[in-house]
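Q:
Got a chain?
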Amino acid sequence: MTEVLIPLYEGVTHLDFTGPRQFLSTLTDFDVITASLDGDPMVSNGLTFSNLTDLETVERCGALPIPGDLGCIPAIENARYKAAVRRLAENATHLTSVCTGSLVLGATRLLKGRRASCHWAWRNLSSAIGATADDARIVCDGNVLTGGGDCRHRLFARTQRRNPRQGRCPVCPTPSRICSRTAA
């Protein structure tokens, strides 16, 4: 059973996590956990998401997808949130992000020296977080997958579907204009 932990923050884009969460929760070999600091409800575009797990009590996960939105700025400034993400990332098999979620990964120093995608309007911040900006919609660099375009369902939902042959990207079987890949 693969545990997928989606760490939410106030103002997150709900499509960045609800679509993948719904898809993955229908599969028998995935346990999807949605969490926030203190298990507090999160509000996004007038919708409140509750019954969340306390992020700091989760011991481990196999995949750690970070959703995006402008709310990532307060999340990046929150030492507790960053510490929890960093701790969980240490043993996760896959780290993923959508949109500005890559800025969260970068702020926790998880993208240092890696190529990463981000929302086009924020891509110029990649170097400030230690990453190399890549304008592909999806970038696979080792066990880190980042997406900057309209790829949230493919990216998150296929996080665990890695091709065992040569560590190929689980999203694109071969490199293309929408996927930039670096083998692990």
In short: The chain has one domain: 2-182. DSSP finds five helices and twelve strands in the chain.
